[in-house]
Design the sequence.
């Protein structure tokens, strides 16, 4: 059984690590916040003093960190994964970061004999706890095959999308569509409400047709209830869209609507709503139109 | 059994009228293009010489016309419905027009004792033929109840959304969401493709999550096949979004993303693609990024 290292025990990393422990894998963990390791260590993991130490005692190292700079630091830094890794180690970065950063980190890893996948997830904390995340992986097929069982302990859908960086490309595509679908719902429903029509009736009239979506089904009831407790925070969606725009600019693809919805998210953050669920995008329109989309 | 009049026998009106004939209703019809009446008359309808003549021999008059000006002309014009209507007649405007126009026309109708619903549809020609349109109605409950059976011959989902104009408000909300969901899919998939990832794999990886939608399921296979045969034409979606923007401006709701996607549709029309299906929005991005989203 492979020895696994896990770096980054935040809201997502902690339950993912616990699911690996529950599956019987020997687990070494590290987080820059020592207290973050406590519950996982209590559940049987070994605390390490650095990412380097995690790598030194692992066959597979998983990173689950906020963004590209943190992954670079944890992998390429002085006390990072590559400093402690033996040749042949597999690094799985499950963070959501810029795809171009994934490719650069993979090149540096390859120079040290370390093989890498990028494998970001979607689904949020509840699915991390249940082990039912959707995992989108990029990297060589043989490396993917070697760790597919491990990924299967954290996710119910594990898809190899393509080469290194592809997982994060799929994740960015996902996040662009989700943000825009929420904004579309919001723009339409504030218009309908201000026009004097019950938004719940509009929802009922259109949900079964071409306007139907998972976003509409998941978020419209929360919008009607005025419930913007996260869920997935607006400030995290800003990070993903910033990575999408950076990628788009680097490779030459215009993304005018993603750019527009990013500005809306930024406006909400400036207004103190960065910690709200991304369903709270509706508040941008509600505030400007001076009306609330609520059940009549 | 109520005598029905039907004005506007285009791509949608013709099969809708035929379904009413098939249900046994006596039907008088009118279209400014005499040839448009031929097949419906052959199926048993009576051809009239004007909208006024249609009204004179009907208990219920249905209009199915391109936009607000055509409905105003057919209802309020010298030879229009109101000129021929007896008090108590019910006018059902099933065109997709500006909600404020519906309200104005209903006021003029009320002054002549004519009761009115706005009842736009979604679903396109195939569902018009099958009689399975989604019908979103606005107007008094008692008027709706009186003609609900008639509407049920043309649609499988018949919903009263609220007062007069509400049907068109729901339709505009529907069209805003559909256009933006298609654009979101397009922006994301062109980005993924240009980043070197197979768009079909991205589709498979994200369709089951929060990015899933009816648009993604219906349009992504056509985008992958490069098939933009309508379906619902870009130039018709432009009309609907123009009505959405007019409404938004009139009542004070900002719609920055709908405005953005309208510009994209206008660019496609200028480029000669106004007759393509709205799934062809992807071509705006493909042309600029110099890549095609196609199955690898």
Sequence:
């Amino acid at each position: 059984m492979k020895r696994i290292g896990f770096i980054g025990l935040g809201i997502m990393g902690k339950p993912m690590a616990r699911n690996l422990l529950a599956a019987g894998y020997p687990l070494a963990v590290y987080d820059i916040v020592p207290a973050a390791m406590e519950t996982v260590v209590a559940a049987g993991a070994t605390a390490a003093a650095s990412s380097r130490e995690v790598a030194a005692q692992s066959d597979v190292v998983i990173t689950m960190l906020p963004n590209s700079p943190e992954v670079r630091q944890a992998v390429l830094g002085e006390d990072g994964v590559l400093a402690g890794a033996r040749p042949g180690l597999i690094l799985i970065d499950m963070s959501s970061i810029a795809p171009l950063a994934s490719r650069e980190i993979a090149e540096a890893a390859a120079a040290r004999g370390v093989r890498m996948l990028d494998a970001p997830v979607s689904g949020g904390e509840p699915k991390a706890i249940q082990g039912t995340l959707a995992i989108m992986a990029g990297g060589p097929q043989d490396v993917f095959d070697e760790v597919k069982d491990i990924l299967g302990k954290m996710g119910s859908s594990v898809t190899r999308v393509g080469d290194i960086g592809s997982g994060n490309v799929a994740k960015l595509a996902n996040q662009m569509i989700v943000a825009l679908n929420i904004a579309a719902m919001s723009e339409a429903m504030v218009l309908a409400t201000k026009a004097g029509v019950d938004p719940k009736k509009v929802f009922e009239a259109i949900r079964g047709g071409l306007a139907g979506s998972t976003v509409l089904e998941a978020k419209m009831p929360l919008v009607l209830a005025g419930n913007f407790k996260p869920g997935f925070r607006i400030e995290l969606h800003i990070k993903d869209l910033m990575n999408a725009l950076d990628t788009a600019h680097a490779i030459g693809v215009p993304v005018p609507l993603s750019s527009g919805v990013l500005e809306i998210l930024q406006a909400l953050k400036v207004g103190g709503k960065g910690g709200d669920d991304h369903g709270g995008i509706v508040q941008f329109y509600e505030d400007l139109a001076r009306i609330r989309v609520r059940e009549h």
Residues 60 and 90 of chain A are 5 Å apart (CA to CA). Residues 166-194 of chain A form the longest helix (29 residues). The mean pLDDT of chain A is 97. The first strand of chain A starts at residue 4 and ends at 7.
